[in-house]
Here is the input.
Amino acid sequence: MRLMISLMVLKEGRKQQMEAKNQQRVMKRKQAMLLMTPWWLMHTYCWHVHTVRPTTATRRSTDKSLERKRAKDIAALAAELDIPHFLSLLRYFLHSQLDPTDARHPEEIPLEECPFYNGKLCVYNSACSMFFAPSDLSGVHGMRREHIRSCPMWRKEGPQSDCVFIVTNPQAEGMRGLDVAHVLCFFSFDYLGTRYPCAVVHWFDRVGDSPDESTGMWIVHPGHQTRNVRNIAVVHIDTIYRAAHLIPVYSTHNIDSRDFRPHRSYDMFQSFYVNKFADHHTFEIAF
Here is the structure.
């Protein structure tokens, strides 16, 4: 009888110890969150723990062998993504990382001023984003984790490339501080002893200065530069906030269903609604 009571006391003590450790972890994450979160996100109780990291493979069906067969250097990745000027984009990215005080637009910076890198890189099929969303009751202690995918084959049915929210103005509120982008690739490389986890993205431009009056959702469309060239950039993975869900703005003309594929939806429609009703957290940030 004494032995049973001792075991029960020991078990209860271990349970309390585990609960105390879990509370400490949550408090540490909240403290880290408070140090790096824009004030408007704290005001709406949607703090973000910025731990976006590339993963070696998607959680379920992306085969690691596909990842091994992907590009290993800049020239190969430029050919894979069909972006001939990818090396220039990477050099502009390095310039922005090494000289963050330079407020010039990349088109205004002479390419000769940008660092040169033409070495090896590692391509990833997905990235994992962890953030604090107390309004979503399904998360443990308000924590949520999601996988953002950009892989050449998903469930053996075709490519999958997700869209994301990217923080472009931490001082602005809602969608005025966020931009939507289509992730074309996740990769990382080492330069001067520093590892840079990056993403190749196709920017989406906002339509108007306010949400659509009928739906309450912002409308975006794929961004293009002069001569109808896609507005593509290399961004640091830390600027990615979380995944974004887009809904096509349907037109009156018919679409040939034989040519329609899910992975081509971003090319089949001209504009999209930013779905703020996707979940609780998106509703509180995409206003």
In short: Helices lie at 2-36, 39-43, 64-68, 74-81, 86-98, 265-268, 280-285. Confidence is low (pLDDT under 50) at residues 24-51, 56-66.
